[in-house]
Amino acid sequence: MKGIEKLSELAPHAAEMTLGTDPEFATRPDGLPRIKEVYGFTFGAVKQMEPTLICEAIKNDQVDVISAYTTDARVDLFGLKILEDDKGALPPYDAVILLKKGFADKHPEVVEVLKKLEGLIDTDTMRALNYKYDVEKREAREIAEEFLVEKGLIKD
Questions:
Q1: What is the pTM (predicted TM-score) of this model?
Q2: 58-85 pLDDT, tens per residue?
Q3: What phi and psi, each to the nearest 5 degrees, are found at residue 26?
Q4: Do 14 and 66 reside in the same domain of the chain?
Q5: Spatial CB neighbours of 55, under 8 Å, sequence gap ≥ 6
Q6: Owning domain of residue 132
Q7: Of 29, 59, 77, which residue is a domain's last?
């Protein structure tokens, strides 16, 4: 639907829409049930499918709206619009680095290097990096190295 930018704007239309989603999002407390709780609407139908089929389903007009990861390369590949979660129903799923207990104390130099990554990889950047891997079929190590060189964290 044209002109819709926010999840709350789906409310008047949701009852006539079919949502394509993976089984996990459909049932997780922080997924579709949370959307219903916060926004107060339900979709007319929910088609659960494997995550790899969701974008194909919307491309082929089998569903009207889908759940998707904002860092998924298919967002750009399929020309999808990410709606703003204007009521904050869904938690952020930001990546974090976890270290084994005691590792930081033994290797503070590693922690200093890892700190340089803070704030460098936003959603759009991660989606572009995923595109290189998923669509261009490039090696993860090559993509990471290119990114680190570009950001001046390592030398070519």
A1: 0.81
A2: 999 999 999 998 999 999 999 999 999 9
A3: -65, -30
A4: yes
A5: 66, 68, 72, 74, 77, 78, 80
A6: 103-150
A7: 77
DSSP 91: P
C-alpha radius of gyration, the chain, whole number: 19
Distance of alpha carbon 100 from the chain centroid: 27
CB 26 within 8 A of CB 48: yes
Q: What is the per-residue pLDDT across 95-138, written as a single tens digit (0 to 9) for each?
A: 888 999 999 999 999 999 889 998 899 999 999 999 999 999 99
Distances (CA, A) of 123 to 70, 99, 119, 126, 151: 7, 23, 11, 5, 16
Q: Yes or no: say if 10 and 4 are a contact pair by the CB < 8 Å rule.
A: yes
φ, ψ of residue 123 to 5 degrees: the values are -60, -45
Same domain as 59, residue 14: yes
Q: Cβ(44)–Cβ(63) under 8 Å?
A: no
Q: Name the one residue in this structure whose structure tokens are 């491309």.
A: 59
